[in-house]
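Memo to structure team: turn this sequence into structure tokens by end of day. - J.P.
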Amino acid sequence: MMDDVREQLKELKVEDFIWIIFIFVSIMAIVSDKYEKDWVVSKKTSSYKTYKGINIFLLGISFLVYLYFVLLSYKKYKSSLKNKKVSELFFSKINLFAASLFLIGGLLNIFIEVNSNDFDGNLFL
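Reply from structure team:
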């Protein structure tokens, strides 16, 4: 029982750190938008490279956060297999599936950002 409490507190401490990362990511996304606006208006290659670089970096950080949540969900899924509670197993499967979808979506966004070249216009407009 005490180990469960320690484990939950450890997970919450990591999640607190993830919220700090989220604040950093949000600020850097605003900076990236500034460079993207400059690119749209002036077509400066340096602004394009800067905003693309920031975006790829932020997507990489997001991917690592998603990976953490997939691993955490998998750990809870494995734990629910031992407990043999049907509802806990069901919800842990859904949680693992949802976390996996976020991870896949993050990976696809990285692929798009790395491989797209929107010198001729934005890929998403």
